[in-house]
Amino acid sequence: MTTLPLDFEAFHRMHRPAYIDWAKTYLNNRADAEEAVDWAFEQLLIAWTEVLAKESPAAYAWQVMKHRTIDVARARGRRETLVDSAAFETAALREAVDPIGQLEESLSLFHAIEALPERQRDVIVLRYSHGRSVREAADHLGITPAAVRSTARYARRRLQEILGLAKEGHADDIAH
After folding, report:
1. Are residues 102 and 163 in the same domain?
2. pTM value?
3. Whole-angstrom Cα distance, residue 80 to residue 78?
4. How many CA atoms lie within 13 A of 9 on its CB side?
5. Per-residue pLDDT averaged across 75-93, rounded?
6. What burial letters (b/e) apply to 77-107, b meaning 16+ CB within 10 Å?
7. Average pLDDT in the 99-114 region?
8. How far apart are CA 98 and CA 128, in angstroms?
9. Were 142 and a residue from 58, 86, 87, 167 both cysteine, which residue would form a disulfide, CB within 3.0 to 4.6 Å?
């Protein structure tokens, strides 16, 4: 039995749960998400010395995981998309007085999130769909907490513009 490098094991333990959550959001299937993430970790392990030499190993690993998620989606004949099931799995929908109205609102929000630039979308999904703290999101994305806060702020503004909320004075309605 081969032993894994201790730093790889620690990295794996730290990031795998968040990676699976993220991949599941896009693949809509836990087994597929686990396959994509495990495939990413296999790729990372093969090149672990080179990964550690990167400016940000976490940022590199995040991109590897995302590419493997896209590969699994394609292999299953699907397009990775946030909207497929996420709109149906919100707490707001389960507790809504008007489920149809809430579903329409959720679908609009998820379509708007998909329209965000990649980094903004990743921050919003980690922070608000998966409930990760600023520090956790920063650790997974391989960026600073300040960058997460700034990116989230710009993403919320962009979502407000897309949804037409900025001019209506609903600046705090998105992602809070």
Report:
1. yes
2. 0.79
3. 6
4. 5
5. 57
6. eeebbbebebbeebeebeeeeeeeebbebbe
7. 70
8. 22
9. 58
Q: Where does 1-112 show beta strands of DSSP type E?
A: none
Expressed in angstroms, the distance from the first to the final Cα of the chain is 48
What angle in degrees, to the nearest 10, is found between the helix axes of 145-163 and 134-141? 100
Nearest to 160 by CA among 150, 170, 152, 151: 170
pLDDT value at position 41?
Answer: 98
| C-alpha to C-alpha distances, 135 to 33, 40, 70, 121, 123, nearest whole angstrom | 23, 23, 26, 17, 11
**109 inside domain:** yes
d(CA 93, CA 135) in angstroms, rounded, equals 28
Contact 140, 58 (CB under 8 A): yes
What would the pLDDT profile of 43-67 be if each residue is shown by its tens digit? 999 999 999 999 999 999 999 999 9
| Owner of token pair 């998620």 | 69
Higher pLDDT, 138 or 101: 138
Residue type (1 letter), 126? L
| Whether residue 92 sits in one domain with residue 30 | no
Alpha-carbon gap, residue 165 to 68, rounded angstroms: 35
Q: Do 51 and 127 have their domain in common?
A: no
What is the amino acid identity at position 114? Answer: E
The residue segments making up the domain with residue 150 are 83-168
Of 43, 49, 64, 82, the C-alpha closest to 142 is: 64
Average pLDDT over residues 137-160: 96
